């Protein structure tokens, strides 16, 4: 439920600001928990750089 709420607010506010707003409340959620539970399609694509 918390993950769904954060995802619903992501476009307007961003993940980190929403998580910071929830900090020290009963709905507190760690950033690592949110990112671990997010579907792969919501994760940023990281391109390998270097040689």
Total beta-strand segments: 0
* Helix vs. strand class: mainly alpha
**Fraction in beta strands:** under 5%
Distance, first to last CA: 42 Å
Percentage of residues in helical conformation:
40-55%
Q: Could you tell me the mean pLDDT?
A: 79
As for the number of domains, it is 1
* Overall 3D shape: elongated
Which H/E pattern describes the elements?
HHH
Radius of gyration: 13 Å
How many DSSP H or I helices? 3
Topology:
Blueprint: H1 2-13, H2 15-22, H3 31-37
Helix pairs in contact: 1-2
What does this structure look like?
The protein has 51 residues and is mainly α. The chain is 53% helix and 0% strand. The termini are far apart. The protein is built from 3 helices and no strands. It has helices spanning 2-13, 15-22, 31-37. The mean pLDDT is 79. The protein has one domain (1-37).
């Amino acid at each position: 439920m918390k993950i769904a709420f954060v995802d619903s607010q992501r476009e307007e506010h961003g993940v980190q600001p929403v998580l910071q707003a929830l900090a020290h409340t009963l709905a507190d959620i760690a950033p690592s928990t949110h990112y671990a539970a997010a579907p792969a399609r919501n994760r940023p694509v990281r391109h390998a750089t270097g040689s």
